[in-house]
Model the fold of this input.
Amino acid sequence: MTSSTGHSVLQLPVPPLEDGVRERTRDHDAGFVSTDPRFGHAHVTTLAPFAREPSAADLAVIADIAAGTEPIPVRVAELGQFPDGIIHLRLEPDEPLPALTARLVAAFPQFEPYEGAFGPHPLPHVTLDAATPTVTIESTRRRLAAMIPASCTLARLQLAWWESGRCHVMHEWHLG
Done:
């Protein structure tokens, strides 16, 4: 999905986890630590990849979808691990997150979530780490013990650019 030249992501920042995810990103690949203070290192992906250079019409459609989506209260507590080794936090409830992704996909059918790698309905989650012999769900749980469980309201939709040395928010909309 990603290339050496970067890609855009429509994402919902998860503020209570920002410090922990940013620090882990710094440890794992410091090039992906953004200097943009709005950038959501801790986020739920709603659609990725997205347009490299969205048009004004694309941005207007996203603005309408964001305006028509109420802020989403969630709780993050339960860690999981995908078959590819990605350690993540599940969101409770996970609805209405799939509904938001479905609206974005309906508006932009040329952009399939994760290029179809995880099926048509990927699980909403916050990526935390990648499993290694020394990084496990338990080590991740210990590292984040002061941050989870956490509750928050997802209130901003960002179009973010992800590229080593160039991560930043391209556009941002408030939900509701």
